[in-house]
């Protein structure tokens, strides 16, 4: 796969949403991709069905709506939900205008049911899904608080997480690939091939924790470089030692050192518990991400 054909971006009414949309637009232009905007706004309370007056001549037969499988009942939304719906319409209008101005094809979707499940279902039919890092100073509603983790763990699709702070003029021009001889790292690299193929610079970084674990074998990185070269991707290999700092800090420090604008890393871990499935490295990266990754 050398191009992205379907991209999904999750949007809301917070300021970082505009950054996500700008990145999504740029990637869709690069890859001539179909861009789907997905509203992250949800109704705050369940909608109330509108009860129709009953015809006095009506029999006690079961309501006809039970048999009208394709029809949706009418709903009366509380004022708070009406305001949410209006915000979603404004976001949709801005999204469609950006598509028009940039000559892109796309569509707008509104999540229904459980939000995480709706996003994951949409991700199943896309080459890439773009989400926002959680802002600890303005945490999202409960329905979206663990959205990134839910998508990473259950969608099986490449995910790009955009930091809540910062503006990013480019994404994927200079790429840092985290490599540790794992299934997760291999999956992340191969999922990122469409992005790596467009990059000017690709650096593969192996982090050695010193005496606490064996170093990544050079032959493994060499094999990875040959694999990428067959896809037309030229990469260079680097090693660093993280004896006194965490692996996540070492990766983010290297991101700054080489001015990378994209970090490619797998979700590491083995336990069934959420944080241990993701692994402490991934969890730390999600909290302190400085570039899209």
Nutshell version of this structure?
The protein is built from nine helices and eleven strands.
Residue-averaged pLDDT: 81
Order of helices and strands: EHEEEHEHEHEEHHEHEHEH
Low-confidence stretches: 45-78, 269-278
The N- to C-terminal Cα distance equals 19 Å
Structure classification: alpha/beta
Counted beta strands: 11
Q: What is the count of structural domains?
A: 2
Q: Can you identify the CATH class of the largest domain? A: Alpha Beta
Provide the β-strand percentage band.
Answer: 15-25%
Proportion in helices: 25-40%
Q: How would you describe the shape?
A: globular
- The CATH topology name of the largest domain reads Rossmann fold
Order of neighbouring strands in the sheet with most strands: 5-2-1-6-7
Major beta-sheet overview: 5 strands, parallel
Can you identify the CATH superfamily of the largest domain?
HUPs
If helices are DSSP runs of H or I spanning 4 or more residues, what is the number of helices? 9
Oligomeric description of these chains: single chain
- Overall radius of gyration: 23 Å
Going by CATH, the architecture of the largest domain would be 3-Layer(aba) Sandwich
Top keywords for this entry?
Rossmann fold, alpha/beta, 9 helices, single chain, 293 residues, 11 strands
Description of the molecule:
This protein has two domains: 123 residues, HUPs (Rossmann fold); 115 residues, Rossmann fold (3-Layer(aba) Sandwich), CATH 3.40.50.620. Helices cover 37% and strands 18% of the residues. Strands 5-2-1-6-7 form a five-stranded parallel beta sheet, with helices on both faces. It has a four-stranded parallel beta sheet with strand order 10-9-8-11, with helices on both faces. A two-stranded antiparallel sheet has the order 3-4. α3 crosses α4 and α8 runs parallel beside α9. It is globular.
């Amino acid at each position: 796969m050398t191009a992205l054909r379907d991209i999904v971006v999750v949007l809301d009414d917070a300021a970082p949403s505009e950054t996500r949309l700008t990145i999504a637009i740029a990637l869709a232009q690069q890859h001539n991709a179909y861009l789907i905007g997905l509203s992250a706004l949800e109704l705050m309370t369940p909608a109330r069905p509108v009860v129709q007056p009953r015809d006095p001549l009506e029999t006690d037969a079961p309501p006809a709506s039970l048999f009208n499988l394709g029809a949706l009942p009418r709903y009366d939304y509380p004022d708070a939900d009406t305001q949410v719906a209006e915000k979603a319409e404004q976001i949709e209008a801005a999204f469609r205008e950006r598509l028009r101005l940039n000559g892109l094809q796309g569509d707008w979707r509104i999540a229904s049911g459980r939000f995480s499940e709706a996003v994951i279902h949409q991700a199943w039919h896309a080459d890439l899904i773009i989400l926002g890092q959680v802002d600890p100073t303005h945490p999202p509603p409960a329905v979206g608080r663990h959205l990134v983790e839910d998508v990473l763990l259950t969608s099986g699709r490449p995910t790009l997480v955009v930091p809540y702070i910062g503006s990013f003029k480019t994404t994927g021009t200079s790429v840092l690939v985290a490599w540790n001889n794992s299934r997760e790292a291999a999956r992340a690299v191969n999922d990122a091939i469409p992005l790596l193929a467009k990059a000017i610079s690709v650096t593969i970084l192996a982090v050695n924790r010193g005496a606490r674990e064996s170093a990544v074998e050079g032959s493994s990185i060499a094999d990875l470089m040959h694999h990428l070269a067959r896809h037309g991707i030229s990469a260079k290999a680097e090693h660093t030692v993280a004896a006194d700092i965490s692996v996540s800090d070492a990766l983010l420090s290297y991101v700054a050192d080489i001015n990378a604008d994209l970090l490619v890393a797998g979700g590491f871990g083995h336990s069934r518990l959420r944080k241990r499935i993701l692994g402490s490295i991934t969890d730390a990266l999600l909290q302190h991400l400085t570039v899209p990754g």
